[in-house]
Design goal:
Pfam families (chains A, B): ALMT
Oligomer: homodimer
CATH topology of the largest domain in chain A: Methane Monooxygenase Hydroxylase, Chain G, domain 1
Low-confidence stretches of chain A: 241-253, 437-465
Strand content of chain A: under 5%
Order of helices and strands of chain A: HHHHHHHHHHHHHHHHHH
Radius of gyration of chain A: 32 Å
Number of domains of chain A: 2
Structural class of chain A: mainly alpha
Largest sheet of chain A: none
Mean pLDDT of chain A: 80
Keywords (chains A, B): Ion channel, Ion transport, Membrane, Transmembrane, Transmembrane helix, Transport
Helix content of chain A: over 70%
Shape of chain A: elongated
CATH class of the largest domain in chain A: Mainly Alpha
Family (chains A, B): Belongs to the aromatic acid exporter (TC 2.A.85) family.
Subcellular location (chains A, B): Membrane
InterPro entries (chains A, B): ALMT (IPR020966)
CATH architecture of the largest domain in chain A: Up-down Bundle
Number of helices of chain A: 18
Chain lengths: 465, 465
């Protein structure tokens, strides 16, 4: 009895502890989920709107069932195709929804036509041959379409359509319907798919539309800005440089926030897939807002590629600065500190100009000025390394300075490439001249053609030196 | 009459030319399509097999309609869900098919249960409130699920399941069926989905299965090999270096094929999305062939990230070599040519070892040897730049050599990182020791722990110097 009495509270206590533990875990999980949901919504409030839009579109289409008994009798089970279409094609952006809708519509039409055709042909054969004939044609069409889905161009834009084509052909061919039913079914299915598609596109466009083109436009500008933020961080750090050129090591200890600003560019490195999917969606979108009918979306991809090239160089530079245990004598450090800062600053200014120009859809008239200044300063830095240092400097002390200078020079030419691709974008999109375009201090700056940035830079070498 | 006679042959000729032109275009298009199809099939012959597998699976499932009249009567229109499931979930790799199948199965089960539950609840309310109650619950569930699809973790693995959940709930709730029908329909739908899923997975696994895990494994090894190819190209080029260090410029004119081998690494830069999707699929795959049950797929992603880091540095190096108009005096060139070649060769050897080790699933015992050799040579190169050059060398002549040396040093440490991540992969996957592991020439090389590569490198400095 004693032992039982001793065990019982122990058992009850154990159960109670377990229940409390589980309850705690559940409360924690709910709390965590709530926090994550809040973060998701805060990161992009359009996500909440999108969720409501999906619900609304489904309800709207399902009205086909409820309030229209004659239509319901007419559609029968096929009315569910409208609901299914909405669920499957409703995407975040208008372009993606439209693309999927058009794909589904055309694929249903083609698939339905071929399915009905195969069915009609099969009916001319004997009763025994008919299923074999139908099976073979489904097999053939499914195999060929599946193979076509591997083609990169078709995959990018018509992957969903090819899938729906296989689906429609299979469903119509093998459904076992009688020949006279098939045409009706194909017709009703196509009609309900069109209703579902139209409802999705309508709600997607009317209520707070999300344009993939606009997202791509903003992403391109934001990515360029991220590189600018890196250079701003480098500049402000260089100006407070005290002991040696281990840029980020001392940074690491002193200021976490500033270090984070130097890591912002990392997301640019892997932006390709996102940009391509946005561009694919954007190509489906009609003229809207500030975008002309034929927006050069491929040029955005080129700007993105140039931006990534620059980000690769920045990655190499920042990796070099973090990893290498370079020590630099005060004499050299003081001498290269100013030109390095100037180059960082000019690159940053140029990139900010380019990013702002894309955002405002104006020509980046002053970006070239900064690029040429950066080029001029890097030439100065080179000649400084050649002549400006005392002859008894140890060669090995120059290596870090030389490497940083070379990489910065590389980055300057990458920045020039970004500028060129943005200028081409401005040309193709017919961006306006900015309202606040002041006459350039040198005068002939603005009328120089795009390709002559080297000449401009030469002009500047004379000016600066 | 005369003018008409003169015009008529002209018109006929025009039509003939037009017809010939169109016919030519069609023939050309067919020829092109044939060529592209051949290329697609040649690039990866598994694509052809996959297409046949899709056709076969559809035919297999559609037998439900043809040869089993009692079952056909039982399933009715619901049999089409089996066909639809096959078309929608049949993916290239086993993992992707299994993932989509499991997603679809569980989502159909959950969605069906919740749909039936909502239907039952609604039947307790009045006739007028019922559609409003059902509509509201569909709206709520659709909105919440749509929102959840934005969560990165859910998006990666359960995006398709969440979509099917919305689909099933909507179809069951708003279908307008009577309460007693709904349970039957939900049951039959789930059953047919399971049949379709099982057929897809069966055919996917039985006929020439494509394992996403194996693809990821091979891709990881191939990407490391691509970097090795770059260094092999650099080495062979450096050994034939005659005039200056404009590596790729003279290359450009002399040997297109070799230049192409130097561009092979570029595909590594953007491999992240592909690797992540393969890893996501691989996580669904069961034990098979040479892979244990819990293969560390995330470690493959880490190896991939290290490989990309190295590729970024290579991009910076190759960009520097292409763009900079550096001239190097013969004296310096001759001196740095050999160490640069050695570093390239050692890096290449190390990467080849690592790639081969992954391929064979053995430990890369000899890769560290090459990495330490490369580290030793790069230290030698540094000290050569410090002391080995004549004191009257122009500083500016050293800049290119210093930059190349610094970047190569960076690349060596990246290679060491790749080696470390591959060693961790070998540890986690329990790779065997290679059969041909010869005792190391230095003896203590192999028993040193992973982290002591710096010590090893010091050993080597002594050996080499």
């Amino acid at each position: 009895m004693d032992t039982e009495n001793q065990q019982k509270p122990g058992f009850v206590e154990n159960v109670w502890t377990w229940v409390k533990g589980v309850a705690n875990k559940i409360v924690n999980a709910v709390f965590c989920a709530q926090k994550e949901a809040k973060k998701l919504a805060k990161d992009d409030p359009r996500r909440v709107v999108h969720s409501f839009k999906v619900g609304l579109a489904i309800i709207l289409v399902s009205l086909l069932y409820y309030f229209d008994d004659p239509i319901y009798d007419g559609f029968g089970v096929s009315a569910m195709w409208a609901v299914m279409t909405v669920v499957v094609i409703f995407e975040f952006s208008v372009g993606a929804t439209l693309g999927k809708g058009v794909n589904r519509g055309i694929a249903s039409l083609l698939g339905g036509a071929l399915g009905v055709g195969a069915h009609r042909l099969a009916s001319f054969t004997g009763n025994k041959v008919e299923p074999i004939f139908l099976g073979l044609s489904v097999f053939l069409m499914a195999a060929v379409s599946s193979f076509l889905r591997f083609h990169p161009l078709l995959k990018a834009r018509y992957d969903y359509g090819l899938m729906i084509f296989i689906l429609t052909v299979s469903l119509i061919c093998v459904s076992g319907y009688r020949d006279d039913e098939v045409l009706d079914i194909a017709y009703i299915r196509l009609f309900t798919v069109l209703i579902g598609g139209a409802a999705s596109v309508f709600i997607c466009v009317v209520i707070r539309p999300v344009w993939a083109g606009e997202d791509l436009h903003n992403l391109t500008a934001a990515n360029i800005e991220k590189l600018a933020i890196f250079f701003q961080g480098t500049t402000s750090f260089l100006s407070s440089l005290q002991h040696n050129l281990e840029f980020f090591k001392s940074f690491d200890e002193s200021n976490e926030e500033k270090k984070a600003s130097l890591d912002v560019y990392k997301s640019v490195l892997n932006s390709k897939a996102n940009e391509e999917s946005l561009a694919n969606s954007a190509k489906w979108e009609p003229r809207h807002g500030k975008f002309r009918y034929r927006q050069p979306w491929d040029q955005y991809l080129k700007v993105g590629a140039a931006t990534r090239e620059c980000a690769y160089r920045i990655e190499a530079l920042s990796g070099y600065l973090i990893n290498s245990e370079m020590q630099m004598p005060a004499e050299i450090r003081e001498k290269i500190q100013e030109p390095c800062m100037k180059i960082s600053k000019e690159c940053s200014c140029a990139l900010v100009e380019l990013s702002a120009a894309i955002k405002k859809m104006t020509q980046a008239t002053r970006a070239d000025l900064h690029v040429s200044k950066a080029k001029a300063v890097s030439k100065n830095l080179k000649s400084l390394l050649k002549t400006g240092l005392s002859p008894d400097t140890d060669l090995v002390d120059i290596i870090p300075a030389a490497t940083v200078a070379s990489l910065l020079l590389e980055i300057v030419s990458c920045t020039a490439q970004i500028a060129d691709s943005v200028h081409e974008l401005a040309l193709l999109s017919k961006y306006k001249c900015p309202d606040d375009a002041r006459p350039s201090p040198i005068g002939n700056e603005k009328i120089l053609p795009r390709t002559s940035s080297i000449e401009v830079s030469r002009n500047f070498v004379i000016t600066v030196v």
